[in-house]
């Protein structure tokens, strides 16, 4: 009897998880030093194969630029490990004899990792290194459009594990890729955590699986060029970011917002550096291919160059065009230019002043990408501060290319290919995910006082509100009537505060 592919894939997942559980039990017995030795070899092998895997990913997916994928692979291996190697995330993390408290890092267990087609090999490297660093086993569910390069990356990592004497099954990858397989992996009772990087539908499925999950939503980060900015430098950084791997990093800029006083200077600088402003007619043509009829991003434009995207839309542009810009005023789910565009296409909004620009940026983020990332180019510290206080993002980047700054390549943020969006973006955290997020903290606490010594302590509010201590003891027990009186006193003073 021949089994259907979906049934085969489900059975494969069950076997992979069983193997992962056994491998993780071995990793859990390792010290942090032993885990670090393993990660060092894994990072080295990933780095050595950065170019070949980048070429493989570019050829298989049709997305981006292989030379830029090499840089992403180096970020996902060398840079990630350089940042993580001196961190302690398992074993005794902190001990305070005065408080009688010890904190112990404990691996979460088996991790299910969803890998996207936009950053397939780099994300696989990054998640594997962090998982092993934290003593976990990991099972990858590859995007069907990048299956071969993800499987090859996992294979190389398994070679590194074998070289160190660690269990190979600490890193595994689904080979029979189906939706049923991914669903089985996410809902498997022995899977402890899901690391979901991918499309919005997949991330929502991870959060609704019943398994704890760390996922990321879509990006739609605006770039505000404030009047005090170094305009040539700001434009150069935006173009560098938006053309890096043809714009597939979710932290990359999606819209430009400028003030009227400097709009002409910004436009001229974009044109000088290879940007093309589309006519209203050409904007309509391009807009029709950016989204599919169901309102989701058209995968045909993802990771394609500005010239290729223009050709798809039937638009003629110069041969040196780097980015396509469309003047816009509306922000709505139906306007493709105010949505995430993982290709070198930018919306261009002009506002009368920085306050109006601030509101436009907020509108863009709430339209899509709330909690993710945005960038401001400015030398005005007060304006930067106001943006920091008000913007609904987890990362406000300043004077840097957003795609590279968001993933920690040009900023002090942890190098990462999973960028949390916080509760606002439907994520469990707003951090760049690192090894510490893949452990549980066990706290060992010594008793410091007896229950008879516990009492109602002094409450002070700006030195204006206080309540006398009422000690509980065997000799002077507090009666229910006294508790009621204390409560009345506290509420009375709060009312007058």
Q: CATH top level of the largest domain?
A: Alpha Beta
Looking at CATH, the homologous superfamily of the largest domain is Aldehyde Dehydrogenase, Chain A, domain 1
Number of helices: 16
Whole-number tally of structural domains = 3
Rg to the nearest angstrom?
26 Å
CATH-scheme architecture of the largest domain: 3-Layer(aba) Sandwich
Number of strands: 17
Largest sheet: 7 strands, parallel
The neighbouring-strand order within the major sheet is: 10-11-12-9-8-13-14
Helical percentage = 40-55%
> Low-confidence parts lasting 5 or more residues at pLDDT below 50?
456-476
Brief digest:
Helices cover 42% and strands 17% of the residues. By secondary structure, the chain is α/β, with parallel strands linked by helices. Helix 1 packs parallel to helix 7 (179-187).
What does this structure look like?
Strands 10-11-12-9-8-13-14 form a 7-stranded parallel β-sheet, sandwiched between helices. Strands 5-4-3-6-7 form a 5-stranded parallel β-sheet, sandwiched between helices. It has a 3-stranded antiparallel β-sheet with strand order 1-2-15, with no helix packed on it. The chain contains 16 helices and 17 strands. Helix 9 (231-243) crosses helix 10 (260-272). The protein has 3 domains: 5-216 and 435-443, Aldehyde Dehydrogenase, Chain A, domain 1, CATH 3.40.605.10; 222-410, Aldehyde Dehydrogenase, Chain A, domain 2; 451-496, no CATH class. It is globular, with a radius of gyration of 26 Å. The N and C termini lie far apart (78 Å). The protein has helices at 5-27, 32-48, 50-61, 66-84, 120-133, 147-164, 179-187, 200-207, 231-243, 260-272, 280-290, 306-313, 354-367, 381-390, 402-406, 480-496, and strands at 91-96, 101-107, 110-115, 137-142, 171-173, 193-196, 213-215, 222-225, 255-259, 275-277, 323-327, 345-351, 371-377, 393-398, 439-445, 455-456, 470-471. By secondary structure, it is of the alpha/beta class.
């Amino acid at each position: 009897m021949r089994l259907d592919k979906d049934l085969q894939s489900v059975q494969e997942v069950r076997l992979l998880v069983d193997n992962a559980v056994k491998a993780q039990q071995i990793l859990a017995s390792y010290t942090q030093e032993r885990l670090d030795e393993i990660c060092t070899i894994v990072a080295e092998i990933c780095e050595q194969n950065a170019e070949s895997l980048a070429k493989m990913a570019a050829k298989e997916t049709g997305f981006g630029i292989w030379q830029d994928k090499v840089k992403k692979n180096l970020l996902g291996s060398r840079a990630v490990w350089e940042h993580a190697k001196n961190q302690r995330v398992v074993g005794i993390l902190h001990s305070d004899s005065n408080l009688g408290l010890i904190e112990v890092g404990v691996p979460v267990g088996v991790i299910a990792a969803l890998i996207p087609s936009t950053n397939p090999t780099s994300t696989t490297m990054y998640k594997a290194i962090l998982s092993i660093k934290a003593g976990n086993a990991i099972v990858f569910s590859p995007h069907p459009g990048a299956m071969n390069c993800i499987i090859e990356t996992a294979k190389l990592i398994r070679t590194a594990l074998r070289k160190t004497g660690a269990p190979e099954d600490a890193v595994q990858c689904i080979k029979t890729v189906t939706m049923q397989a991914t669903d089985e992996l996410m809902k498997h009772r022995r899977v402890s955590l899901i690391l979901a990087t991918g499309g919005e539908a997949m991330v929502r499925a991870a959060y609704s699986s019943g398994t704890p999950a760390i996922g990321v939503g879509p990006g739609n980060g605006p770039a505000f060029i404030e009047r005090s900015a170094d305009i040539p430098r700001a434009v150069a950084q935006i173009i560098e970011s938006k053309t890096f791997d043809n714009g597939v990093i979710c932290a990359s800029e999606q819209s430009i917002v400028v003030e009227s006083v400097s709009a002409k200077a910004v436009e001229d600088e974009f044109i000088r550096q290879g940007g093309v402003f589309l006519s209203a007619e050409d904007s309509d043509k391009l807009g029709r291919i950016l989204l599919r009829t169901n309102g989701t991003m058209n995968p045909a434009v993802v990771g394609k160059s500005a010239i290729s995207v223009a050709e798809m839309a039937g638009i003629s542009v110069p041969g040196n065009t780097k980015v396509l810009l469309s003047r816009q005023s509306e922000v709505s789910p139906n306007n493709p230019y105010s949505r995430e565009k993982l290709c070198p296409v930018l919306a261009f909004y002009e506002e009368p002043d920085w306050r109006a620009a601030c509101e436009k940026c907020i509108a863009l983020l709430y339209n899509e990408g709330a909690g993710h990332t945005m960038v401001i180019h400015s030398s005005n510290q007060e304006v930067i501060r106001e943006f920091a206080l008000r913007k609904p993002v987890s990362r406000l980047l300043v004077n840097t290319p957003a795609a590279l700054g968001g993933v920690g390549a040009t900023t002090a943020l942890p190098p990462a290919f999973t960028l949390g969006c916080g509760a606002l973006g439907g994520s469990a955290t707003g951090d760049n995910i690192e090894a510490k997020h893949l452990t549980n903290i066990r706290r060992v606490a010594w008793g410091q006082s007896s229950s008879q010594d516990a009492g109602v302590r002094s409450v002070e509010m700006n030195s204006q509100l206080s309540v006398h201590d009422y000690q509980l003891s065997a000799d002077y027990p507090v009666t229910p009537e006294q508790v009621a009186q204390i409560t009345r006193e506290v509420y009375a003073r709060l009312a007058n505060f």
